[in-house]
Amino acid sequence: MERPLGISFISYFYIFGAIILIFTAIFFEPNADELGLVERFGIDYLPERLFRILLAVFTFIMIYGYMRLKRWGFWMMILYSIGFGFISYILTPSFNQQPFIGNVIWSGIMLIYSFSIRKSFQ
Fold this sequence. Notes:
By secondary structure, the protein is mainly α.
């Protein structure tokens, strides 16, 4: 089965994001942000750099399955979108910043699109 164009677009977007995560884990001061990723996920005991790299690796694995139209890739993307969407939704009233609102909207779009083409996944 041919991969839908939306899957390719989404996958390349997430690959770009994972590369940025690795780049920021290596080259930027992890404590420069007001709210780092570990605080967003509520796991303060993990170092910020390690978490960014682990999240990037998870993203690469998820995108591999999603691009190959594997059912496990589909479900990983669903869980990823729900998780990030929920965390962003919870943080939006506290920080009222555009990235959190954008993440909620993007997660919703991802869920709607992924469910609309779920029959493409094997």
